[in-house]
Design goal:
heterodimer; A: about 230 residues; alpha/beta; six-stranded mixed beta sheet; four-stranded antiparallel beta sheet; B: about 300 residues; alpha+beta; 4 strands
Amino acid sequence: MRRNQGAAVIELENVGYNYGGGELLDEVSVQLAPGSFHFLTGPSGAGKTTLLKLCYGALMPTSGRVRAFNMDVHGLDRDQMAHLRRRVGVVHQDCRFLDHLPVVENIALPLLVSGRELSHEEANLHELLNWVGLSERAHALPPELSGGERQRAALARSVILSPDVIIADEPTGNVDWEMSQRLLQLLVELNRMGKTILVATHDLSLIRAAKNQVQARVLRISNRQLQLAGADL
Amino acid sequence: MTDSRLHKLVLGDTQANRVVPPSGFTAHLTLFVSGAMAFLAVFALALSMASGRLADQWASELARAATLRINAPAEQRAAQTEAALEILRQTPGVATARALSGEEQAALLAPWFGSSLPVGSLPLPQLIEVTGEDPGYDAAGLRLRLQAEVPGAVLDDHTRWRAPLVDAARSLRRLAWVSILLIGGATAAMITLAANAALAANAQVIEVLRLVGALDSYIAQAFIRRFTLRALTGSAAGVVLGMIGVWLMPEASDEGGFLTGLGFQGWGWLAPLVIPVLGALVAFAATTRAAGKRLGAVS
């Protein structure tokens, strides 16, 4: 068995996932080094979302081990899991907001639930809203937002606690090309600030566009296995 | 629980409370149920205290009181009464013994025959009221001696009808306590159902909160606080209404018998004030349990 050097932020070791009807993932091993930028691609239903969920503990592997920040995810209790989630920013496929709260409060939600004093973070919050271009829409309710606005709000929420890792599931799924470029730009900027990024997407042109700006690796799921895709993309 | 958490639970963290959307319907149901249950609990409590009082009263008063009846021909009645009184005065454990006057006997019969009946013309037995000390006299020994010396005397120490009365009062008190327990259990069950409904309705909110790193205790607190405060408010209102109801009942009086004594006396009026606190505790426990179960199912 390979020894973990303690360098990887998230590490999957011979991970398998069985959803009851059969193997979805088998013998998957990958290490996300700090500051790395990974794309995860593959056909629909290949298990991209499942792999991401394994990374932030929403699912437990049926075999193998998942380590996050040098802790075995399997051994974490519920409170430790909550603390892990604060270090991993997640942009969910369908965003997941609290629809009764305005955008600004949704973005501030991680601050709120981790017991931070919101009044101390106001400047940060404004800066973040500016950065994702949602200052004008701060008091709109989530159902009133467009697809691109929702994705940017979800990204803002995922980074507000300044996590070490940002995991995004199809962040450009429902947006036009221009907006997906803008989202990519935000992710690249985060990566330059030292964040580890993992983005699941089936949009190959997005990956090509990213390769011009950042050292990105591409992981591809096929036949239940994870392969490092070649440079030919 | 740390001070700050307790503080938050009582006073509320207004920001945290906004995280769970306001719920109109279940809130009103919880208020109504806890109010109604507290109202019933007040009556059950009043019943238990009153029947307890009755049981104690009857047990102690009747135990000490006895009646001696002298059935004798008119010409011997005075002599036999005197003899009986003499024996009673000599009996250890008898505090007082007093022959009832003609007027007193007439008053006792008035409820049955009316006051216009010339009681004096009837061949009534003479009654002697006997009050025992604590500990009392030896009834069996007294009977034997009276049998020998005053043949017309019959001692009635009320045992015959005292025991079933005291038993009845005691079982009434037991029933009242069982009712209070059932009311508490029913409150817990209904609040558990309401809390489960609220948790299920907010399943997505809970999922989002877990996703952004909320601890179970943080999520649970928002629900627990709501239900505890609702139960407290509802049962406080129910207790106030129940106490007004009890207060409006007629005062205890000789004419009404024991039925009118169903109420609180003195410090007893403070007892119902415990009900809202207990209601809130029941709601707290029920919601904590329900939230714990529900949250366990979310990753």
